[in-house]
Amino acid sequence: MPRLETFSLTIKTGTQGRKDIPKYSINGFPLDFDEIEGEAEPGKVLKVTGHPESFPHTLTLSGPDEGIWEIEEVNAEYFCSNEPSYKIRMGAVTLDDHSDLNIWQERPPEVFEV
Question: What is the pTM (predicted TM-score) of this model?
Answer without folding.
Answer: 0.92
